[in-house]
Amino acid sequence: MLGAAVALTGCSQGGGGNASSTTRASTAPATTVSASTTPAASSNKTPLKIGLLASKTGALESYGKQTERGFQLGIEYATKGSKEIAGRPIEIIVEDTETKPDVAVQKATKLLEKDKVDLLVGSSSSGDTLAVLPLAEEYKKVMIVEPAVADSITGANWNKYIFRTARNSSQDAVAGAAAIAKKDVKIATFAPDSSFGRDGIAAFKTAALKLGATIVAEQYADPKATDYTANIQKVVSAKPDYLFVVWAGANSPWKQFQDMKVQQQGIKISTGAPDIPALKTMNDLIGMEGFSVYYHTLPQNDINKWLVDEHKKRFNNEVPDLFTPGGMSAALAAVESLKKTNGDSSADKLIPAMEGMSFDTPKGKMTFRKEDHQALQPLYAVRLEKKDGFDYPVPVLIREMTADETTPPIQNK
Fold first, then answer.
1. Are the CB atoms for 59 and 17 separated by under 8 Å?
2. Which residues lie below 8 Å from residue 372, measured CB to CB, with a gap of 6+?
3. What is the DSSP string of 200-247?
4. CB 19 within 8 A of CB 33
5. Is the distance from CB of 350 to CB of 338 less than 8 angstroms?
6. How confident is the model at residue 200 (pLDDT cuts 50, 70, 90)?
7. Burial letters for 342-378: b for 16+ Cβ neighbours within 10 Å, e otherwise?
8. In 224-314, at which residue ranges do the beta strands (DSSP E only) sit?
9. Residue 397 reports pLDDT greater than 50
10. In angstroms, how far is the first alpha carbon of the chain from the final one?
11. 170-296+379-401 has which fold?
């Protein structure tokens, strides 16, 4: 899900690295993955249990599957194949939030009470994540947030147990505004009526207004709707120079923008480059300049090369998509911090180990800011271009925006 960006559609592929998985028998089935196949796994060392909350079904199903794949690969990469830390085998228990906050709470409670997990990771939806944050504080367990982006997660609703490897809406907003906002430019915005959408637009507005732009219309659509005619008509009536779009989920508005000839009326559309299935609906936006959280050819580093190569080997030559590297980054952060504590998962040891911690990821170096535990990280200014052999416009790098450039404001209490 993108904060200041993005129309995204679901994908049909599932996964979870190369590890084996079994389904637990319960009223709320989980996917339990034994992440150690080495002899150490049969020792008396207590497993390190990580509970991964993800949308394996629902509107954000593709995000959850990408995150899970990346997380499994990240654990393997970070432990150099041993899948253990300080002699303790890693056990990953995956729970489907169904992209429903009440279900997310139910599944997180199960992970904390029944499974006794040492660490929480997730989730795909900002709404699901916001519902679970109080449980991390109640049970005194560190939670790594990935890929949810609402500012309030590390802002108004934050607690000290929360760390986020995902970028937040304000980071997206800085990148999105830099692409189009300047003096005398009129901008309309379009987003789902949700914490994700409203946080994303609020952050974008702040960044765009600072650059001298004027916001002439804001449209918030029902995230479950499939007809956005009334919203789009209001955007067109405002006569903006640009329409900046924040979106997430399979029911994206791109086709209706095309059907209602928004661009033919002199309105340029700008957004973040989404996942590959959604890019396939955006051929009319070739030439658009915006930003990207990730596309597999953008970062140039050894970890990303490993991720791309291994992902293609294991998943029928598929490249990692938008949220795969985020799942990997969460795993790298978890392993790095637990190595620092010699496998001690207690919050009073993990929190000081993670605050200010820098770690390498497929996107480059990330650093957990001490004040709010938000990971500072690079983003990418891109242009969508037509390339031979692709049935979608490819995000091509204009420049990498450094972590310093995209640093968001501190918003927690």
1. no
2. 154, 155, 158, 410, 411, 412
3. HHHHHHHHHHHTT-EEEEEEEE-TT-S--HHHHHHHHHT--SEEEE--
4. yes
5. yes
6. confident
7. ebbbebebbbebbeebebebbbbebebbeebbbbbbb
8. 242-245, 268-270, 272-273, 289-292
9. yes
10. 24
11. Rossmann fold (3.40.50)
Residue whose token pair is 């949700």: 194
Task: Look at 3-17, 157-171, 288-302 and tell me which has the smallest mean pLDDT.
Answer: 3-17
Q: Considering Cα of 337, then 1, then 65, then 224, what sign does the dihedral take? A: positive
Tokens, residue 279: 């890019």
Residues 6+ apart with CB under 8 A from 197: 191, 220, 223, 246, 247
106: enclosing H helix or E strand: helix 101-113
Q: 91 φ, ψ to 5°?
A: -115, 125
Q: What's the mean pLDDT when you consider all of the chain?
A: 89
Q: pLDDT at residue 18 above 50?
A: no
CATH number attached to the domain at 22-167+299-376: 3.40.50.2300
Of 308, 240, 289, the C-alpha closest to 395 is: 289
Tokens found for residue 11: 């994908």
Please give the distance of CA 171 from its chain centroid, rounded to a whole number: 12
In CATH terms, are 22-167+299-376 and 170-296+379-401 the same topology?
yes
Q: Where are the domains of the chain?
A: 22-167+299-376, 170-296+379-401
Residue 319 has pLDDT above 50, yes or no: yes
Tokens 């393997």: give the residue. Answer: 76
